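tokens incoming
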């Protein structure tokens, strides 16, 4: 039996290969054909920086947020 996967995302490819490699001792044969046109993975966005300045020009303190959280 054969399964063919076309994975464009390098990070996903690496994860799938890691998972499949765990079954090599059970008789799984992995044949890879990595094409040269696969672009390297892009750096993940720093999602934390998207929140920069959300409290700008607002009279909100850490103490206020803590009090609201415990209600």
């Amino acid at each position: 039996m054969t399964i063919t996967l076309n994975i464009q995302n390098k990070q996903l490819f690496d994860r799938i290969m890691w998972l499949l490699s765990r079954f090599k001792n059970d008789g799984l044969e992995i044949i890879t054909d990595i094409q040269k046109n696969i672009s390297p993975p892009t750096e993940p966005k720093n999602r934390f920086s998207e929140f920069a300045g959300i409290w700008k020009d607002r009279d909100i303190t850490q103490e206020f947020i803590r009090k609201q959280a415990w209600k």
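note: The radius of gyration is 23 Å.
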